[in-house]
Amino acid sequence: MEKNRRVSTPETPRYQFETPGVRMAVLTYLEAIRQGIWEEMERDPSVFLLGEDIGVLGGAFKVTAGMLEKFGAERVIDTPISESAIAGAAIGAALMGMRPVAEMQFMDFIACGFDQIVNMAAKMHYRWGPAVPIVIRGPSGAGVHGGPYHSQSNEMWFVHTPGLKVVMPATAYDAKGLIKSAIRDDNPVIFYEHKFLYRRIKEEVPEGDYVVPLGKAAVRREGNDVAVITYGAMVWTALEAAELLDQEGISLEVVDLRTLLPYDEEAVLGSVRKCNKVILLHEDTRTGGMAGELAALIAERAFEDLDGPIVRITGPDTPVPFSPPLEEYFLPNARKVIDAARKLAKY
Amino acid sequence: MPKTKTIRSGSEQTGIPPAALERMLYYLKLTREAESRIEQVLYRQGKIVGGVYIGRGQEAIGVGSALQLIEGDVVLPSHRDFSSFLIRGFSLADMFANWMGRADTPTRGRDNTLHIGNMKLGIIPIISPLGGTCPVACGVAMVLKWRKQGNVALVHLGEGTTSVGQVHEAMNMAGVMKLPVIFIVNNNGYAFSTPVEKQFPVKNLSARGPAYGMPGKTIDGNDVLVVYRAVGQAIARARRGEGPSFLECKTFRMTGHSAHDAAEYVPARLLESWAKKDPVQRLEKHLLSKRIMTRQGIADLDRRIQVEIDAAVADAEARPLPQGESALEGVYCEPECWWGNHRSQERVAQTRCGCESAAFDVK
Predict the structure, then answer these.
(1) Helix axes B165-177, A83-95, angle to 10 degrees
(2) Assigned CATH class of A24-206
(3) Could B358 and A97 be called an inter-chain contact, meaning their C-beta atoms sit closer than 8 Å?
(4) pTM of this prediction?
């Protein structure tokens, strides 16, 4: 079962921080999110949390552990099992000047609060002008044998909704910097955390305040032959493939979108123009996935720069199955990226 | 233990000062006449396009409740509570112009009917999948509770909307958290074409209040004085920190669901019997019988209202239509954003993004 594990924890952090004297701590992806929320709650009294089991329990994954004790029951609110009421109450509080951060216990359950997010929050500013600064965050993605309702990557439900912002960090550094940006943003932000990365990714993260801007992609590895545009846990899959392909003399450039709506068109086009070949990689299912959107962008604006077909590597058009062999089959992995890159390199 | 109560009549001994009663009559009539102008004139002239949903026959509910709100309270009206918008401070011209899709309006032409909001005025509009405002009211009420200023949130919904899951989630949350929110059901007999007996299996919806840990009352929604008293009690309770209430106001929809619905499915006898309980006429009679107003005074009021409506229509019609390409603006709230710039001209309270929000000084 473990032979195709798709995430390699990097041995050394890939990020260099120029500021001398900044203290660094090794944090997991999950701890980085917690630290980001914690610091925002300390610096801004209008930030508060609501969700199921987030207070006394500290959340199903313990993202909010310790917050009830630190910030009190008025700012860390355990709610009934009511995703619509959670999302709607967040919107109402935001209209009153607050900055609520609502947790979905699993992002699969966000479907129960869909109307509030796509019809109420997303359109409100456009319709009559108020700021709706809410964050709806929670764990998504497969790889933990969670079955069809604890494994989905449903980010495209919201990428297709104007007015929302959709974010998915891949690194611990980004997880902290992006959750801070999301909380400070004046728009509704849907913040996808990849549950497979929660405790598997560890890296040095600066203590104290910094933000990662929404809407900006990051080049995780520079390369010349094939650009891999991806996000979330698949960033690590792409990096794993890049490491192995490097030995064959095929150089992958790995682009982490970080924000899916609005996404960084120029970063995508820049890497395509540089490598002239592109793989679009995501865990989400194929039809209507982000890869299709990126393929259209590239075809419209970088057609002349392409030296080979646009390749998509995605989950198949199925629900996420439970049993390990089925789930493993469902998930893209480094082997699939390597095979595709080898073929593309020959063009 | 909360109890379900039924109140049927209460026009006597109101304790409401005469000036307040006259104000009620003014808003009842203004609402009736403004909506009639919309439905029977402006819509037919093609000056108003799109859906037209009005609240003829049920004006007492909006008037009897919104008149009791104070600064800092927030109302989330239904699509048949035109009066709430006027009472909270929207101008009649703004309302007409918004229905006409004009540029210089509270929605800049982006949304129609009563989908009009303004946090400075404490008014949050519906979205068309009804019921969505109930959870939002809970969030508003949470913040009002933290502020400890005794403010309340008041959310209106139709009896059909009580079948929506979000309403139950919101009532439950309000009950659990003891939020200062009042759920007011305008039970007008029909949800589009669906009569109440196909909508819910209980005689009185007020039975649902105690089920969520709050008092439930069923009242005569066509008697503005009854509404005023019952809503007043619920508001007082919420201001004291005793939590939410649920009020069912029985009334009747004296129009189709919308201007394009002839409502042939509504038996004529129902319309006839409810016409006798018309809320405007009832208050008028009350004021005459108590000698608070004279026939001449009422005739003067009617004339004044027509003049006011004429002026507002003229104002609305003089406003320009939006430029097509402005459809691209204001999707996101960003620093220096489109809405922020627009709002700044209106001297509305600003957040750091420049957009309106209820001013909240966090202590």
Answers:
(1) 70
(2) alpha beta
(3) yes
(4) 0.93
